[in-house]
Amino acid sequence: MAPRFKTPAPLVADQPPVSPFLKWAGGKGQLLLQYAPFWPPREKLRRYVEPFVGGGAVFFHLRFPAARLADSNAELIGAYQAVRDQVEALIELLSVFRNDETAFYAERLLDPRQLDPLRAAARFIYLNRTCFNGLYRVNRDGQFNVPFGKYRNPTICDAAGLRACSAVLQGVELLTGDFETTTRGLGDGDFVYLDPPYVPLSATANFTDYVPQGFGEADQRRLADHFRRLDEAGCRLLLSNSHTPLARALYEGAGYPMRVIQARRAINRDGAGRGPVEELLIANYPLPKQP
Ligand SMILES: C[S@@+](CC[C@H](N)C(=O)[O-])C[C@H]1O[C@@H](n2cnc3c(N)ncnc32)[C@H](O)[C@@H]1O
């Protein structure tokens, strides 16, 4: 299928970027410069939509005033809601947490579903800041099981950073759910950036444990089908994935523009693969040539 839109000019944020309030596996913070030439032109875009928002590095960087952010991780979206709607109360709660191994494991034992939403959000941010590598991983029962990070002095309560994120989140729609549900009804004027859990580079190096059920090949195929539906609905789309034969094969046949960029993996379960790896970008609008 031929690309539907004309060559883009680089998208430039009107406002200075803000740092995300979470560390997140697969976070795009370190890749923003490399991604810069590939955003679509901002004019004619009404709304930014990110159905796999994670730590939101791209959202906080681009700063669209109208946005929908979503993720299947309910606790994560609960944390965004607390930052958006109750930032001062959240700061007050977070400021009493300590970077202490015993306190960490006591907190980890709590069931967030039994806590008041604001308290659950504080727990989520505390564990994210103090656990190993800022990972989010749960066991089959949905219990968070990442060990203590042993950092000397992690920032648990960055009050200024939380307030800045809260300001950017005002008016932003937040949804919990699978990407197919949270992107229903989108069309012309919507720019959708899709950053799913990646197709694994190898059987042991996968990183699909963000949710208990993982994100396997069937989900990657479901996503590729959905990409086509969103394209037909008139959305502008940019998707990132690992540069693997499966990821290429899922989008290549339709003739979507693709580019390969060099990335550095910050988080990898087995500690291997921290060197450069290739990422694949797929769009439904023309992408500039790489130097
Ligand atoms: C690669 S991470 C996104 C990273 C994000 N771009 C950032 O900069 O932090 C993928 C996200 O997809 C979410 N996820 C996994 N399966 C999902 C699904 N079926 N629908 C929506 N989100 C899902 C995970 O919870 C995770 O936050």
Briefly, what is this?
This protein is α/β, with parallel strands linked by helices and 291 residues long.
Sheet with most strands: 7 strands, mixed
CATH architecture descriptor name of the largest domain: 3-Layer(aba) Sandwich
Name the CATH superfamily classification of the largest domain. Vaccinia Virus protein VP39
Main sheet strand line-up: 3-2-1-4-5-7-6
Mean pLDDT: 89
Label the overall shape: globular
Number of strands: 7
Number of helices: 10
SS-derived structural category: alpha/beta
Strand content: 5-15%
CATH fold-level assignment of the largest domain:
Rossmann fold
SSE string, helices as H and strands as E: HEHEHHHHHEHEHEHEE
What is the rounded Rg? 19 Å
Bound molecules: S-adenosylmethionine
Give the N-to-C terminal Cα separation: 26 Å
The CATH class of the largest domain: Alpha Beta
Domains counted in the coordinates: how many? 2
Assembly type of the chains comes to single chain
Please give the share of residues in helix.
Answer: 25-40%
> Low-confidence segments, ≥5 residues, pLDDT <50?
1-10, 205-210, 266-273
Polypeptide structure, described:
- This protein has 291 residues and is α/β, with parallel strands linked by helices.
- It folds into 2 domains: 29-72 and 177-283, Rossmann fold (3-Layer(aba) Sandwich); 80-166, Adenine-specific Methyltransferase, domain 2.
- The chain contains 10 helices and 7 strands.
- It has a 7-stranded mixed beta sheet with strand order 3-2-1-4-5-7-6, sandwiched between helices.
- Helix 2 (57-62) links the parallel strand 1 (47-50) and strand 2.
- Helix 3 packs across helix 6 (117-130), helix 3 (74-85) crosses helix 7 and helix 4 (87-94) crosses helix 6.
- The radius of gyration is 19 Å and the shape is globular.
- The protein starts with 31 loop residues before the first helix and ends in an 8-residue tail after the last strand.
- The model is unreliable at 1-10, 205-210 and 266-273 (pLDDT under 50).
